[in-house]
Structure formats: structure tokens, C-alpha cells
Amino acid sequence: MSKLRRQLESGTVWSAKNDMSPLQGLRRAVEKASSGQRRTWAKELVELLSEDDLVLRTRSIAALDLLPADPEAVLNVLRSSPELFDDVGEGHPLFPPHLDDAVWYWLSDKPEATKAVRERLPEQPDLVVFLAKNDHEWVLKNARKWVNRLVLGGVLLSFPADRRADLLHALGPWKDAAKILNESWWKRVPDAEALRDIVARG
User: Fold this and answer.
1) Is the pLDDT of residue 82 over 70?
2) Would the pLDDT of 77 be above 90?
3) pLDDT tens digit sequence for 96-131
4) Residue 88's beta-bridge partner residues?
5) 152: closest CA among 92, 192, 98, 110?
6) Please, are residues 139 and 157 in contact by the beta-carbon 8 Å criterion?
7) Phi, psi dihedrals of residue 109, rounded to the nearest 5°
8) 3-10 and 35-48 are packed helices; what angle lies between their axes, rounded to 10 degrees?
9) From CA 184, how far away is CA 45, in angstroms rounded?
């Protein structure tokens, strides 16, 4: 049994007294590992995504954030064995907690998976926030369909600064301008005053 698998199953390879999860020990090991070792573990991690054990599968999904796994390989596993991801995670807190949602959440930040993430939007529309980073021109073109009030703040923050005004113009006129202007996320948006003015003008 490999060290990576043992760590994800029981946390007995790279453990410390106060660890709350096997992922903490893995994180420390990854930080000290060579780039070659990280790539080797990343390939193995993709294979572990297909394991029958729900706890191991859940922790493997969580570990995607720690290793340079190939997005296309992860996508292939997700598509070839969808039944393995039709469950809620167990053994480690995932966000989102459902396995397939969590994998798509990870994929949404990967340029290689852009087209697939677009196709996922009907099931998981909040992914548009991450799609806005790598595929902002498509999001701009399709803004009226996918960018609603619930995700607007996240999309604006993900958008290139010089295209944020274009996005707001594309979404106007603003019938709910008063509610939008009252959102707390404006505090985190650069050049908020000029952008708020676009919304205020309706």
C-alpha cells in the first residue's frame, strides 16, 4: 500500500499530535516534497478518486487542492464513473458537501475544464463565479442568462478590472438597483464608486 493511500485512509504516515485530519499531514508532506514527487502523488490521487470506499474517495477529492492533479484526467474519472460521485462526502468536510459538486468546484478554476464547466452550469449555476476568471468573454456574452443578483458580487471580483463596467452595462437596465447597491460585497470591489454609478443610472 502506498504512503499516499495510507495517509488518506488513516493519517498514520505523516501525522502530528494535534492533527484534526489526515489532510493536515499530507499538506506538510507536499510542502516538503520535490516537484517530481508531487506529480507522482497527483497521478496516484486521480486513481484514488475511483475507490469504492466513500471516506477515501472524499479525502481524495479534498486532496485535489494540495496536489497538481491533471484536470482532464479528473474530468475523465468524473464522466466515466458518475455513480461514484452521487453521494455526500464522509470523513472530511467538503465544500460543497456533495461529491460531484465538490469536484466541479475544483474543476471550475482550471482553464482546461472551461468548456465542461459551461455545460455544468444548469446543475451548478454558482460555478459562473469561477468561470468568470478564465472565461470572462463567454460570461460577458451570456451574462443575462447566468449572472443574477446572487452571484453578481463574486463574478465582478473574478472579472478583469477593465471589463467590469462592460459586464454591468450588459446586465442593465437595473430594475432592482436599490437592492444591488446595498450589497455588502461592494466593499471588496476595486473602483466600486464608478461601477455603482452604472447600476444607479439603471
Assistant:
1) yes
2) yes
3) 999 999 999 999 989 999 999 999 999 999 999 999
4) 98
5) 192
6) no
7) -95, 5
8) 60
9) 39
Considering only CA atoms, which of 65, 89, 92, 61 is closest in space to residue 77? 61
Nearest C-alpha neighbor of 91 from the set 67, 52, 65, 62:
62
**Residue 202 pLDDT > 90, yes or no?**
no
Q: Where are any strands of DSSP class E within 98-162?
A: none
Alpha-carbon distance of 71 to 183, in angstroms, equals 34
User: Could you count the other beta carbons within 10 Å of the beta carbon of residue 55?
Assistant: 15
Cell numbers representing residue 124 in the block: 451548478
* Distance, first Cα to last Cα, the chain: 62
Could you tell me the CA-to-CA distances from 182 to 82, 168, 188 in Å, in that order? 41, 16, 13
Residue 146 · residue 125 · CB < 8 Å? yes
Query: For residue 121, how many other CB atoms are within 10 A of its CB?
Result: 18
Task: Give me the long-range contacts of 25-34 (CB less than 8 A, separation at least 24).
Answer: 26/63, 26/66, 27/66, 30/66, 30/67
Secondary structure (3-state) at 196: helix
Q: In whole angstroms, what is the distance from residue 93 CA to residue 59 CA?
A: 9
DSSP sequence for 73-114: HHHHHHHH-GGGGSSB--SS--SSSBHHHHHHHHHTT-GGGH
Element (H, E) at 175: none
Dihedral sign computed on CA atoms, order 135, 141, 146, 147: positive
